[in-house]
Design goal:
With 290 residues, the chain is mostly helical. It has a domain of 66 residues: 434 Repressor (Amino-terminal Domain) (Orthogonal Bundle). It is built from 16 helices and no strands. Helix 7 packs antiparallel against helix 8 and helix 8 crosses helix 9. The N and C termini lie far apart (61 Å). GO terms for molecular function: DNA binding. It comes from Lactococcus protaetiae. Pfam families: Rgg_C. This is HTH cro/C1-type domain-containing protein.
């Protein structure tokens, strides 16, 4: 059982002002509940369901609270990484990378520490553009992602943020794998958002490298994902990538669609991204005129 279960259960019980005796009733002892909340022992599924029933908490409600609780630190870390990148804050990114390296040194067998360190290093490199990546760092990404049957939030986060350092052959292999590892990202909204951005990144990198066929493959997959208006930012990025694809194919409407996307991002207040894409469009059009 997930070690966050006990902590989450504890928070819910306290919020409802319920004693361990009240929640456990005759079926689960106070000592068992205490150890479960402390994370020193587990409960059987049957006893866990009894406790939830006694608190009048459904399993779906518990899972939702658990997700918010266990992802808080993870979410803060990723947001911190995004903000550091958006600000092009190399000092902050180096600090985050060194902190990740320290975790790897303390727990060298923890693959999650290694992969997270690589993601931060890739993000730092997007700013400083002078870092090198070992073959082992890339192999670890490939080995881990291929070993997971269904990708969730973490897997899409790792893949989506390391595509820039992967060779075309590895990108094609992992991209094909991602297309088939869809069960979990179809269910949870946050997972789906990461999946959308990952396939956007794949289409973007393929276009950047001149592989229009591969880019179209990911664009078509995005079209099958039933992306609602709740993902407006992502829908605009997809509109941008479609415009760029059309431009690459020599269609006049391509650059117009790209600029329309930038204007809509500006209206939504996404000024940093809009500025980045506007500068990119200027570079693309200049290159096309050469």
């Amino acid at each position: 059982m997930n070690n966050g279960f006990g902590k989450t259960f504890h928070e819910i019980r306290l919020s409802k002002r319920l004693s361990m005796d009240k929640v456990g009733g005759k079926e689960v002892s106070k000592a068992q509940i205490s150890r479960f909340e402390a994370g020193t022992s587990e409960l059987t599924i049957e006893k866990f369901f009894i406790l939830l029933e006694n608190m009048r908490v459904g399993i779906d409600e518990f899972e939702s609270i658990l997700e918010d609780y266990t992802l808080s630190n993870e979410y803060k870390f990723r947001q911190e990484l995004i903000m550091a990148y958006d600000a092009k804050d190399a000092h902050k990114l180096r600090k985050m990378y060194h902190e990740c390296e320290e975790k790897v040194k303390k727990e060298p067998d923890d693959i999650y520490h290694k992969l997270t360190a690589t993601v931060v290093k890739v993000t730092l490199n997007l700013v400083v553009k002078n870092l090198r990546f070992s073959s082992r760092e890339i192999e670890q990404i490939q080995e881990y992602l291929l070993s997971v049957d269904n990708w969730g939030r973490y897997e899409f986060w790792v893949f989506g943020n390391t595509v820039t350092i992967l060779k075309d052959s590895v990108l094609r292999l992992l991209g094909t794998a991602a297309l088939g590892k869809t069960e979990f990202y179809q269910i949870l909204p946050n997972n789906k958002r990461l999946a959308i951005r990952t396939f956007y990144n794949l289409a973007y990198i393929a276009l950047e490298r001149g592989n229009l066929e591969l880019s179209l493959k990911y664009i078509k997959h995005l079209d099958t994902m039933d992306i609602s208006i709740d993902y407006l930012y992502e829908k605009l990025l997809i509109k941008y990538i479609k415009g760029w694809y059309a431009h690459k194919k020599g269609l006049p409407r391509g650059s117009k669609e790209m600029l329309e996307c930038v204007e809509m991002l500006e209206e939504l207040g996404c000024r940093d991204k809009a500025r980045e894409l506007r500068e990119e469009i200027t570079s693309i059009l200049r290159f096309s005129d050469m």
